[in-house]
Amino acid sequence: MALRRVGVVGAGVMGTGIAFVCAQAGLEVTLVDVEWERVERAMTAIDSLLSKKVAEGKISEGDKVRALRRLKGATQLEALRGVDFVIEAVTEDMEVKKRVFEELDQLLPPHTIVATNTSSLSISELAAVTQRPEKVVGMHFFNPVPLMELVQVVKPETTSEETVRIAWELAERLGKLPVLIKRDTPGFVSYL
Predict the structure, then answer these.
(1) Where on the phi/psi map is residue 57: left (φ > 0), alpha (ψ -120 to 50), or beta?
(2) What pLDDT digit, counting tens, does each position of 2-48 carry?
(3) pLDDT tens for each residue of 128-167
(4) Residue 27: enclosing H or E segment and its boundaries?
(5) pTM of the full predicted structure?
(6) 167-172: long-range contacts at Cβ-Cβ below 8 A with a sequence spacing of 24 or more?
(7) Is 3.40.1000.70 the CATH classification of the domain at 5-181?
(8) What is the mean pLDDT of residues 173-188?
(9) Partners of 5 in the beta sheet?
(10) How far is the C-alpha of 131 from the C-alpha of 110, rounded, in Å?
(11) Which residues are within 8 A (CB) of 42 and not within 5 positions of it... i.e. 6 or more apart?
(12) Whose CA is closest to 137, among 95, 167, 101, 180?
């Protein structure tokens, strides 16, 4: 599956960073948060990050414009209906994440993979509230996302090898160094 469209749920620091690296990597990105003010702040932050890269000579002004054109903001999960891959980065609260996963499961086409950026909650438990546990995976980015290279790709028992492969390839496309974690425990590799 060729990834073209990615959704990011949660426009906090992590979600903003994830949306930035996705847009910069050439993906169409929809960033969703319940509060439009957070979406606007995220868009402003991404514009600033891109401007800094232009000033440093790392990208051209045209690259910046194209990256911003690939980025959309929304306040409803319905905006993610056509995406190929979703990365959830909402607050570290299991009940909140479960509600997001349940709603995404109803909205998204069957091929869509749903990843969580959690660093401390059970991915298996999140997968269990969906009809697609084989398409639920952990993708734990480190903060600040634009600077930190490591991404933990966390595979609970229910996650398919294909899902892991696609998440791994996405991490590489974003210029990250993926590491596979087969322990669905708090902290994954960072606390071993």
Answers:
(1) left
(2) 799 999 999 999 999 999 999 999 999 999 999 999 999 999 999 99
(3) 999 999 999 999 999 999 999 999 999 999 999 999 999 9
(4) none
(5) 0.94
(6) 167/85, 167/113, 167/115, 167/137, 167/139, 169/3, 170/3, 170/6, 170/85, 170/139, 171/139
(7) no
(8) 81
(9) 28
(10) 9
(11) 11, 15, 16, 19, 31, 33, 73
(12) 167
Tally of CB atoms within 10 A around 154: 27
Instruction: Express each pLDDT in 9-21 by its tens digit.
Output: 999 999 999 999 9
> What is the b/e burial string over 79-114, where b = at least 16 CB atoms within 10 angstroms of the residue's CB?
bbeebbbbbbbbeeeeeebbebbebbbebbeeebbb
HSE (CB half, 13 Å, CA atoms) of 90? 19
What does DSSP assign to residue 133?
Answer: G
| Residue 140 among the catalytic residues | yes
C-alpha dist (Å) from residue 151 to 65, 100, 172: 27, 22, 9
Sequence-distant (6+) residues with CB within 8 A of 64 are: 50, 51, 53, 54
Catalytic residue chosen out of the listed positions 5, 140, 155, 176: 140
